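Teaching note: in complex prediction, the entire set of molecules is handled at once rather than each chain in isolation. The prompt given to students was simply: 'Predict the structure of this complex.' The entities are:
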Amino acid sequence: MNYTTNIFKVDNVLHHLKHYLPAQASLKDFIHHNTLHAFQDRKFYDALTQSSKIFGYKTSLSLKEYRDLYYEGKISESIILKAIGEKKGSELPEVWFDKMLNGAYKDTFAGRRSHLRNNWKDLYSVDLDLAIQPFLFRFLCSYLDQGIAIWSFPVWNKGFLTTIREMERNTFISFFKTPRAKQMLMDRKCEISDLLAILVGDETLYEHYLFDQQFAHPGWSGFVSVVEDMPQTLLDTRRISLQDFIIFELLLEIDTLDQKFGENWLPLAKRIKGHVEPLFAPVPITEYREVLHLWQDAYEWTFYDQVLGGILENPEKENNLEKSGFQAMFCIDDRICSLRRYIEEIEPTAQTYGTPGFFGVAFYYKPMNGKFSMKVCPAPMNPPYLIKEELDNKKNKKDFHFADYTHSLFFGWLITHTIGFWSAIRLFINIFTPRLSPATTLSFRHMDKHSRLTIENSDPQLKEDGLQLGFTITEMADRVEGLLKSIGLVKDFAPIVYAVGHGASSVNNTHYAGYDCGACSGRPGSVNARVICYMANHPEVRQILRSRGLDIPSKTMFLGALHDTTRDEIEFYDDNFADVAQTELHKHNKKVFMQALDMNARERARRFVTTSKRHDLKNLHEAVKKRSVSLFEPRPELNHATNSLCIVGRRALTKKLFLDRRAFLNSYDYSIDPEGNYLFTILSAAAPVCGGINLEYYFSRVDNLKLGAGTKLPHNVMGLIGVANGIDGDLRPGLPNQMVELHDPLRLLTIVEHKENVILKTIQRTPQLYEWFINEWVHLVCIDPETKAMSKFVDGAFYPYSPEYIPETKADLTNYFKTETGNLPVYLLKS
Amino acid sequence: MERILELLIVWPFLAFFISLFLPKENEKLISGFTFGVVGVHFFTILGLLIYWITLGFPVLNLKEFSIYESADMDFFIDFYFDHVTAVYSLIGAMLTFLVTTYSRIYLHRESGYKRFFYTILFFYAGYTLAVFAGNLETLFIGWEILGLTSFLLVAFYRERYLPVKNAFKVFSIYRIGDVGIILAMWASHHLWHENITFAKIQNYELVHHHLEAHSVFGLFISIMLLTAACAKSAQFPFSSWLPRAMEGPTPSSAIFYGSLSVHLGLFLLIRTMPFWEHQLIARILIGSVGIFTAAIGASIGRVQSSVKSQIAYASVAQIGLMFLEVALGFKNFALFHFAGNAFLRTYQLLVSPSAVSYLIREQFYHFVPKHEHIETHFSKKLEYTLFLLSIKEYNMDDLLDRFLWKPFKKLGNLLRFINIKNVYYITIPTFIAGVLIHLTRFSLPPFLVEILPEIFALIGLMLVFRAYSGRWNVFVVWTLLLMNHFWVVLAISFNEHLTFYEIFFHLAGVIPSGILGYFILWKMTKLEPGVDLNKFQGHVFEHPKMAALFLLACLGVAGFPITSTFVGEDILFSHIAYDQVFLAFYLALGFVISGIALIRMYARIFLGPHVKRYHAIAQRSS
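The expected output is the structure of the full assembly:
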């Protein structure tokens, strides 16, 4: 990056700004992504160092936190020595070890950002942020509001600055207190460079100034930038650009200064003495940073070593495939990995598979009576398909507490006198016996169980909203083939194959979308599960598949379902079999699912400190369900907390391993994919999705105040698009503390079962994919399918790795679930 | 029944003191204790009310004990129980019970878990005291506790900038309300020649008799009461603090600003209604403030795009209507309205995070795209103007700033000649001269003697302003604020004879608090170089104990009801004649501004983003 640009080019600077601003869309589209995405073109550790120095972020645990972990035994000494050896080579390991443990370094998280703009306060005694921000945020929020205000924004569809001009022209009051800023706005003489000439007066400082200014409220600026690029994140669309927003803020700054000093004040640059350090000047790596990085390496590999040791010891035993009772495909989500373990434990003949929870069918979904369609596939995809829900009568229950009229003067007056008292009763009921209400976000509400879906396309010309209605037979066959081959399910089909999507239920949860399936753009996966099963059951599709060598016996039925990860409940779709034997089988399988869900709930409950473990299995499950409907429960479930692994390979690799719900599991059979084509598809999705989740958790955990959303208890919903603290605050992107407090900030370890050279070629197919690995934002370990030899990917090549850890074997973990709330080590499970 | 009532009032105080000593880590114990205490309280009130109803709604007045008694004044604690108390106490107990239950799990793992619960208990103790109060003095104690706990709960997230800034704002406006109560107390003292109880003003004959002789004085009291009520209930021009108070955890916002605290201004009006209901001007004033606030509150509420501020303004508008209702004489109707509003807003705030999913679902299924419609130029102009005005909250903040805070600061700036170098040279000799004059009884011209109290009080007040506006050395500010009490005592001693005991009573709280505060400041400057008042420094992060002690010292100097100074202030006021409105005003203003300046000192030194950057620190704008 050229940090000494002298000539200010507004487009470049805007582009640069947009690149660095947070990229979180509105709450309904909550999609995890790497918080420091702007730094992804650098090595992970360089990014940590630079972003910390430039923006003042805390990008890793503090030295004390690492040392405490070491003393608690969570970081192993031998791994530390190994890490030193790898990084420092010939140097004496003891010296670095001593530095790590006893070095006197001072943590400081003070960035360069704001240094320039702070001079308003220091030299002019003006607090511009205090004077401008409250009004600026309130006005912007009104402009973007999606339906909180009763009196919605009066000017519509004109663009931000045009709107302001239009209002300024037609009002008895003014946005401004002084004439100059107003004049500039109305005369359209308000290019960013014009305004900066007045305010700053030195071109070399313009970029720095804009960064200072916009990063004083990264939440709002980032959101403006997102809406500019992706207007569809607002259902009620708005036209706005970062440029307009910056111009307005600069005008308000001039206005504030004019009010205080008249029009004669010197620009900032004229009064600054001395040199302002450029924002993006190179950041030297200090010994302190090196020590932190060594700690992080050791912290990560202490855990990775356990996992790899576990995999090495895991006895690979394939099921007798011909007798498998049923097969079930799940999402790769880390929350599912324990459920799969229980299903296999209860029904040893069952086989489970993992694949991204949209099951390879990407489309938009429009529910009955919906005015919009929503994307139900990974966020970067833009599928040209639409699937509609059809239902005879669908109603949404109402709750008057959210109604406009309670806020108006006269209706409000009537209501407080009458049903205001009903609130008291509701409150009593909700506090002492929490139950479902219209305010609850319920995963099963995403699609009605009794609805029909328009899956099959009869006429490719048939379009709605510019999207093709449903899929043609060939399109269906392609998707089914792709899915089954990528997970390695190509033969020995069981009589019933389930496709189980997942969603979550919660109440009083602004981040609800982040709890649903990430592969479905933060929505439940029920529609996708149903759609893929319809396709796979279609006789004509089967015929095409047979012609392509994929023979699904006619007896085999695919059955869609939705698993609610918060409540640990399941709902099956279209489960009316003509065949009696199959009906019986399904009945039996259902029981397996139910029992597995009970056990899964018990395992999850071990981390819920406020849930008593003395309940029996059923009651414990009830207690877990209750969390999802309790208004006062800020942790309905723990979501992806503690995620740190992504395993791409056959289930046999991990079948008997206890991974403590920390792994994304993607089924993949190297033997049917010698070229790595399916692997490429898998990794192209897994790296950004799982890596994105993992890194968002990482950064929200290490700096919850700047990179996360802070505690959610004081959050206030702004315009239905985001949350802020109180009413004058900046938007808070990132994850709230309640979601990440239990998370260990480890990068994702991706384990792939294939030959080294195939993996290497696969990840190098696109630069975007390769960047994740070569820049170390996720780790990669290769397991040779034949020799089970492990090698780790470092700087573009694989180096052999042999784990030290030998896992203990446990027959039953139930007792741990009663007492242990922290992470458990990797165990081998006795069957 | 009397004994149970007394117990009901003591109970939360006792619980608060016990809760201070509970172990910080034991969430179950802390919340279980609070749950038990508030639960027992709630059910006792419920039982008591039933019993009270069977007795046929008797009105009770309990004179408890005198804190200070002399020939011409009697500062006593008095309790009163009638249907207004019944409604307020029942709703208060019920909502506090529900909200503490709610918070038990909601606040799990939050740092400050214990702080939250003991602040709630303290708040509840203050609330109970205020609604059971039988005279203004008792009510004022509860009122002050509410002010302090509000400050503490708004600033619950004390390591961030905005909560601390807004907590300070709320506290400042509450303090303005306090001027109203202090002056109302002073004036009613002269009107009745005693510390009148609410029971006595029910006597129409008595009220009528006194008011007839002093109708202007009566109106003055009413206006002061209205000022206090407006500040507490966020009526015009004070409304803007209410939405900004929503900085703490949602349940605390719900109970404070959705329901209990914010309706206390209304309570004050209902309580003192027998006093002002025969003054037409007072009723017109109350009604107009109410209807005006209702109108602009509703209009501001309509444009709010955040859930909590929308609820806040909706509530402000409803309270405006309640003011109107009491002004029209519908007291019981207003009580009913209060109950409904309190329940509704509490529940709305508690479910406010659900608004996202609920309203987006609504939008998803019922969205109607906007269409441009043609309108006349004038109607468009009016619409935009109203919209912008509502977004700007009718410039209420600017208004307060321009007419209240700025003049204070300007006054302080006029006194720039007093600076850190000469502050002691100027003030100490003047003060000593004053004392000497007083002791030696110089024969001064009578007109001079007459205005000396005003002069000395004014000097004290000016120094308070100087302390308020200047951001200087902490020791100087502390000394100036402390000295105000001495100036005031000096001023009053010229006015009437002050006994040594009275002076002692007043200064007994100030001096130890002053010394304690000075000591902590000294210690802090030793520990942390660069302690000043220029910005928030957040030293509570490393020195929580010092912060707590310093807060105590500030409260002591500010005359908060934890020391005898609280009563001392009232004693001093009793020596101000009824025609010395200026003197009374100087004193009241001095106490109020010094209170604000003290809390600001505390906030600047101990709260806000920590100046030491070795741990993660929130953005200022967050």
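Point out the following to students. The first strand of chain A starts at residue 327 and ends at 330. The longest helix of chain A spans residues 287-313.
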